[in-house]
Design goal:
disordered N terminus, binds zinc ion, mainly alpha, His-Me finger endonuclease fold, 142 residues, 7% strand
């Protein structure tokens, strides 16, 4: 349709970049309120076929990390937001930052006890295994 016109106007224009026949708003309904556009890096995109698979994987990760953190929350009386847990988990590679263990992991907040909750960011939280986390616990807290 407009191909001839475009080809004469812009001789270097490739057909796949010609949006002159595009319909404005055609895909708007695919972006419901609150959805985000996240660009997957090629290695990740190669694993997931569609956004549903990405969402399933992220739900599973979020549930696992949330469960893990609830153990620590009871011990330290600290509520670490899921967003912070996910950031810490990703940054620390899902393992103890001291020995690299991947079992019995806990989120360790640098300011346990009464000050907890005032400055909970990924910078004040780290992943530790039970062997490295528990020695810091005060006997009176348990
Ligand atoms: Zn450790």
């Amino acid at each position: 349709m407009n191909q001839e016109l475009n080809n004469t106007d812009e001789p270097d224009m490739l057909d796949e970049y010609d949006f002159s026949g595009g319909v404005r708003g055609k895909y708007v309904s695919r972006f419901p309120k609150g959805s985000s556009v996240i660009v997957l890096e090629p290695d990740v995109a190669g694993v997931f076929e569609d956004s549903e698979l990405v969402n399933q994987a992220l739900r599973t990760l979020t549930e696992a990390v949330t469960r893990l953190a609830s153990v620590t929350s009871a011990e330290h009386r600290t509520l670490i937001p899921t967003k912070v847990k996910l950031e810490v988990w990703s940054r620390d590679g899902g393992k103890c930052v001291i020995c690299g263990a991947t079992d019995e992991l806990h989120f360790d907040h640098d300011v346990p006890g009464s000050k907890a909750g005032t400055s909970i960011t990924a910078a004040t939280v780290k992943l530790l295994c039970a062997r490295h986390n528990l020695p810091k616990t005060k006997p009176g807290l348990r």
